[in-house]
Specification:
This protein is an alpha+beta fold and 481 residues long. 31% of the residues lie in helices and 22% in strands. It binds 4-amino-1,4-dioxobutan-2-aminium adenosine-5'-monophosphate and magnesium ion.
């Protein structure tokens, strides 16, 4: 029966309330005095107030207008006399598209639900202000990333999700198999015979698209991936997911400095995009952040609020120091001397823990830091060896509150050195002939990095648990929804 097309609330709120006839569809947030409906359709954090004439509305219908119910309302958009909104919808016809039983609805709560409760109800949490803001910002960040690379002429390359290679040389992968788990075929020596498997060899979910991206870069010049990656490490932390999205640019004819410049430009570009385009959502999350801070003791409170923090990152040059310089700073730091670190720093060569990274970023430099030239032993096989024969052209970007947000390097383009490295690190060179072919045929200097998308969203939204910035988090003992 409806003749008017639906308008999104976001568009209504920037239009003139000139008395014209409009239709909105959305979900009830609150219903007051049998008269005022606050309705939200997901297009913006803001609700539209619809006013119904309860004398003309059947009491049966009034009863069904409850939090969470889906409605279609048609009426006139007029200036509002009440406080808190500039316009309102004078409802003429109201249709209930979907009831929402208050007795049953998990979000029908008197108090604000905890993030933990909402994680358990991740299928419904999009309906809260916090999560709708987070996922609109997540979208804006993804868009800005594609926009950034497109403007620079990068080719978006989709690398495989199922792979037989192990890009990071770490044994933390999920197997992919079509064999019977209970009773797999076995060879003469009793081992599982993967020749019988779907792909005729052992396969798993990818931990990174880098190696394949390198193949693309060595012909297309500049490529990037943006896809899901998987790690089976048993990390039950607020920074790790078993399934996360990664952006991996790879650039031919680039060195480590070019790589760092690209990474810094990218991060600043996408943060600026969100500051310019997601003002309402950011403002909401900023207030949320400030409320959270108030619950902490004074000395634990952040110096900057969320908006200030984002501006601070876009306006300042990231600090660039070598691993060796970082070790000196850490060795002489107060928490190290007072044995406050869980892992004591006493010598060059140790891997940095997140407590050390956070000290450098949050206490020492108080800004994003790019650490370069790590010891070769603690980094992946493909990183370019420096002339000192001890360190590699690696870089990690460390962010306040997050720790490592980007990891990257200039790649080893010299065939002999790469082959030697693979031998010492037990990487099967024969199986990786395709990777080594890039070094055999027209090798060239090149560099790239991986940006963890959820760590970026975490930083930009000011949230503190990575499980709250991906729609359906995957972590140890949890694959719900
Ligand atoms: O440092 P990583 O392991 O680097 C690579 O995978 C390289 N192949 C990237 C490249 O050079 N192309 O991972 C890159 C980033 C990290 O800095 C971090 O932000 C994120 O991916 N990351 C995770 N995010 C969420 N959960 C996890 N378990 C993550 N592991 C890494
Ligand atoms: Mg890393």
């Amino acid at each position: 029966m409806e003749t008017i097309k639906r308008t999104k609330i976001k568009d209504l709120l920037i239009s003139k309330p000139d008395g014209r006839e409009i239709n909105v569809k959305g979900w009830v947030r609150t219903f007051r005095n049998n008269q005022f409906i606050s309705i939200n359709d997901g297009s913006t954090i803001h609700n539209l107030q619809a006013v119904i004439n309860f004398e003309n509305t059947a009491s049966e219908t009034l009863k069904r207008i409850s939090t969470g119910a889906a409605l279609s309302i048609t009426g006139k958009l007029v200036p509002s006399l009440g406080k808190g909104q500039t316009m309102e919808l004078q409802a003429e016809t109201l249709e209930i598209l979907g009831d929402c039983d208050p007795e049953q609805y998990p979000l029908q709560l008197k108090n604000r639900p905890s993030l933990e409760y909402l994680r358990e109800n991740a299928h419904l949490r999009f309906r809260t202000n916090t999560f709708s803001a987070i996922f609109r910002i997540r979208h804006a960040l993804a868009f800005a990333i594609h926009d950034f690379f497109n403007k620079r002429g990068f080719v978006y390359l989709n690398t495989p999700i199922i792979t037989a290679s192990d890009a990071e040389g770490a044994g933390e992968m999920f197997h992919v198999t079509s064999l019977s788990i209970a009773n797999p075929p076995r060879n003469e020596t009793g081992k599982v015979d993967f020749k019988e498997d779907f792909f005729g060899k052992e396969t798993h979910l990818t931990v990174s698209g880098q190696l394949e991206a390198e193949l693309g870069a060595m012909a297309l010049g500049e490529v990037y991936t943006f896809g899901p990656t998987f790690r089976a490490e048993n990390s039950n932390t607020t920074r790790h997911l078993a399934e996360f999205w990664m952006i991996e640019p790879e650039v031919a004819f680039a060195n480590l400095n070019d790589d760092m410049d690209l990474a810094e430009d990218l991060l600043k570009y996408v943060m600026r995009h969100v500051l310019d385009n997601c003002k309402d959502d950011l403002e909401f999350l900023n207030n949320r952040f400030l409320e959270e801070e108030k619950t902490k003791p004074q000395q634990d409170r952040a110096e900057l609020d969320l908006l200030q923090k984002l501006h601070f990152c876009t306006d300042n040059k990231f600090e660039r120091i070598t691993y060796t310089e970082a070790i000196e700073i850490l060795k002489n730091s107060t928490p190290n001397k007072k044995k406050k670190f869980q892992y004591f720093i006493n010598e060059w060569g140790v891997d940095l823990q997140s407590e050390h990274e956070r000290f450098l970023v949050e206490k020492h430099f108080k800004k994003p830091v790019i650490l370069t030239d790590y010891p070769k032993e603690i980094k992946a096989f493909y990183m370019r060896l420096n002339d000192d024969n001890k360190t590699v052209r690696a870089m990690d970007i460390l962010f306040p509150g997050i720790g490592e947000i980007i990891g990257g390097s200039q790649r080893e383009e010299r065939l002999d050195i790469l082959e030697n490295k693979m031998k010492t690190m037990n990487i099967p060179a024969e199986e990786m002939y395709w990777y080594l072919d890039t070094r055999r045929f027209g090798s060239a200097p090149h560099a790239g990095f991986g940006l963890g998308f959820e760590r970026l969203v975490l930083f930009v939204t000011g949230m503190t648990n990575i499980r709250d910035v991906i729609p359906f988090p995957r972590f140890p003992k949890s694959a719900e929804f």
